[in-house]
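Archive maintenance. Older records in this collection stored only the sequence; we are now back-filling the structure field for every entry so that each record is complete. The fields below show one back-filled record exactly as it appears after the update. Entries are processed alphabetically, and Protein NRT1/ PTR FAMILY 5.7-like is next in the queue.

ARCHIVE ENTRY
Title: Protein NRT1/ PTR FAMILY 5.7-like
Organism field: Camelina sativa
Length field: 605
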Amino acid sequence: MEHNKVDTELQDSYDDQEKWVLDSSTDSRGKIPLRSRTGAWRAALFIIGIEFSERLSYFGISTNLVVYLTTILHQDLKMAVKNANYWSGVTALMPLLGGFIADAYLGRYATVLLATTVYLMGLILLTLSWFIPGLKPCHENMCVEPRKAHEIAFFIAIYLIAIGTGGHKPSLESFGADQFEDGHSQERKMKMSYFNWWNAGLCAGIFTAVTVIVYVEDQIGWGVAGIILTIVMATSFIIFLIGKPFYRYRAPSGSPLTPMLQVLVAAIAKRHLSCPSDSSFLHELTKEECTKGRLLSSTKSLKYLDKAAVIEDQNENTTTAEKQSTWRLATVTKVEEVKLLINMIPIWFFTLAFGVCATQSGTLFIKQAMIMDRQIIGTNFIVPPASLFSLVALSIIITVTIYERVLVPLLIRATGNERGISILQRIGTGMVFSLIAMIIAALVEKKRLDYAKEHHMSKTMTLSAIWLAPQFIVLGIADAFTLVGLQEYFYDQVPDSMRSLGIAFYLSVLGSASFANNLLITVSDHLAEEISGKGWFGKDLNSSRLDRFYWMLAALTGANMCFFVMVAMKYTYKSVQPSLAVVADRGDDDDVETATGTNNTSKFT
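Back-filled structure field:
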């Protein structure tokens, strides 16, 4: 009878899990979501749709930004690249603020609404700067220097877009991932595919931007391009709002900084105590008491922080312990969340070199294309320089599709890992391709310089831009591995209450890399001038030595990879305690093992 009662309870739990979403999320009416009517792909497709339009707008501006700064605002190459990197850096770092606000105060859905409104304001101002007479670049079609009013309006517009991106990017991507429940085996597998297809949709927006939008900017006008971007963004925003009944929502959980500080203060206050060898003696909520989020298992890394969860008087009962100040006694889960964030720091740092390589595709690679032969053989059509970035987007789409449909099933059978390879292995694989891309870029640029020297008397004889294709394609393959891997890593490994910030951490890699790229340009140019009397960055590309800069990046990437591998080999993944819902799922053993977090050590090698 007792056995039958347990079986009945398990069956009831399984039935509840299949019908309802039991992960603390709510539907649009604030009630427990019904699985058959909310979330999963039915909701994620609305979210991927607005991401398409946002990436269309962003890359429609960013990939042609250096061209705009040099041709419309008449800045020299060095200043234009620096301004483009500053804007890219701010755009990629703003999500740290946006993610914090989303997780702590507004919630992800509300943050997306607010950020998209600011984004639209930037697009509207950018468009008006080409149609309002007082804001137009020049009085006439040709001018030596643009109006100051246009320059001010332009920079205000693009930095409004940067602010909008700051709230939009981390909130939207994590809001999309929230549509899949971690405790449900089928939806957990869908979530692993979500990041791949999110990037496929993202790249579709990029491809359209660097082909259609860039062509409109170059051949018709920036104002017309601005109208198109504004209409597309506004339309997708309306479609996003239509999907409201299908979404699953998570309430903001307050400042994530407070629990972190509480753990640190408690650990320091009890630094004289010794940690018990058995983690069961550490303070933790029971599964019945834990109503929000998931409980984490204790790990062996950073054992000093475990002192925050040590109960000072082991004779105290559980009720007495729970009455202690949270600044004096923390739970194991809170301690483990702090460990997760600390363990992320070296991973974040050693992916910066990849970020520096990735920034070249939108700045120096485009500038190279500007002075190369872009005419399609047998026609009069000249490919816009920024359109070469479409090779990166196509490369990502093709690589992600092959990885998802072909490589992952093969790797699952070979490794037994439900992802095929671990997240850090995926990131490391992309780094190898970024190194190869920089080597190719250095060789191609040296060939271009030699060709320009041989034909310096001819203004029509320039090397074909097709030579740039390999470096764009290989860098796209690198992005498909590392950028997608970083998105999954930072979303999956941060505390559950900080997932918008997790996406912001991923974006901050690219933002910090843009600033690091500027620093490398300044330092390498200065050192080259000190050593040889001539810097690597002149007024134009033919008086510059980008090939040497690319070789330097290749060397830095190679050295960085060695440190990344060492850190990755010692990394400990998030370890989630098993729950009744997951056990009752009755899935295969690998699913249960991953959900419970029993296999939490790094498998990088």
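Update note: The chain has a mean pLDDT of 81. The chain has 20 helices and no strands.
Entry marked complete.
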